[in-house]
Write a structure and sequence with these properties.
Elements: H1 3-7, E1 12-18, H2 22-33, E2 41-47, H3 54-66, E3 69-74, H4 80-94, E4 100-104, E5 108-110, H5 114-125, E6 129-131, E7 134-138, H6 144-147, E8 160-162, E9 170-174, H7 175-180, H8 196-206, E10 211-213, E11 219-223, H9 230-251, H10 254-279, H11 282-299
Parallel strand pairs: 1-2, 1-4, 2-3, 6-10, 7-11
Antiparallel strand pairs: 4-9, 5-11, 6-9, 8-10
Length: 311
């Protein structure tokens, strides 16, 4: 952090929720501390491990040593929505001069220029929300089919306005968005399922808020070996379908959602067969039909809970 940043009023707050990824958090904070720009920023870290908050201890030490304005909290209520809501809520309330609230995950690092790019785009385009690319770095060499899996494909391309964001791992939210909705915006029904970010961004789109894609605001995500197995990707495909169903159920008429479930199943089977013929990969071919299965499973009241961990 530069001397100019230290002396200026806080304009941006970088929020980092964390859970049992101490070394990942170290990398994330190193990349945040290294940001060089004219944007004075603070950092809010929320450790969701109430039983053993080693991440909080690390964050306090690193941020104090670096001379960065910071707030470090422990959120004892388990679940990613609890942690993210606590981070945004604390950021909005603790730093009243800040207009820009940015989130990065504890398995990511920000590249140089990331902070400046997000804030500049929001300022120049009066954007309510801004998202940037997340490039994956696999910790072990994956099979070719894994790198082409739809779950590792995200928005890309040039800087431009888009309909909505789908993930919060690299995003900026302007203060006026929290004033419209809540400084704790993620629906707790997604707490252990995931997808609270997608539901929130869907609400933003339906409310007519402006969203931009910033090609220059790049982060890298480190993908652990257990996240490239066929078992994990199968479960993730099902969970994605369950998230899509729950978001639809909250924002669309019941009849429309039921018809979409039926259509999704038929299309999922067709797309899986087409993908299998085109690629010869059962892993890639399984994704469409597994997403459809996830919708059906969720409609029966069964939701995966990948973010619920034993204490």
């Amino acid at each position: 952090m530069t001397e100019q940043q230290r002396l200026s009023p806080i304009a941006a707050v970088i929020c980092v929720p964390t859970f049992r990824r101490v070394e990942g958090l170290r990398r994330t904070l190193q990349s945040v501390i290294a940001q060089r720009s004219d944007v004075a920023f603070a950092v809010v870290v929320v450790d969701n491990d109430g039983a053993d908050p080693r991440g909080a201890a690390l964050a306090r030490e690193m941020l104090a040593t670096a001379g960065v304005s910071h707030t470090v909290l422990v959120e004892p209520e388990q679940g990613n929505c609890h942690a993210i809501n606590r981070a945004f809520g604390a950021a909005v309330e603790t730093y009243p001069t800040a207009d820009f609230f940015i989130m990065i995950d504890d398995d990511e690092i920000a590249l140089p220029g990331w902070l400046q790019a997000l804030v500049d785009l929001s300022r120049t385009r009066s954007a309510d929300l801004v998202g940037g690319p997340v490039f994956r770095e696999f910790e072990v060499r994956p099979a070719a089919a894994v790198t082409r899996h739809p779950l590792f494909v995200s928005i890309d391309g040039e800087t431009r306005p888009i309909d909505q964001l789908h993930g919060s791992g690299n995003c900026l939210i302007h203060r006026r968005v929290f004033e419209r909705f809540s400084p704790r915006p993620f629906d707790l029904r997604f707490n252990f399922l995931g997808g609270g970010d997608m539901e929130f961004f869907t609400r933003c789109r339906l409310a007519g808020l402006t969203t931009w894609w910033c090609a220059e605001a790049v982060v890298h995500e480190f993908v652990a070996p257990d996240r490239i197995t066929a078992t994990f990707l199968t479960k993730r495909s099902i969970r994605t379908g369950s998230i899509n169903y729950l978001v639809d159920r909250l924002h669309k008429p019941r009849g429309v959602v039921l018809l979409k479930n039926v259509a999704s199943l038929a299309l999922g089977i067709a797309r899986s067969l087409k993908t299998l013929i085109r690629t010869g990969s059962p892993l890639l071919a399984s994704h469409p039909v597994l997403m459809s299965a996830g919708r059906i499973i969720a409609s029966l009241g069964f939701l995966p809970k990948p973010y619920k961990s034993p204490h």
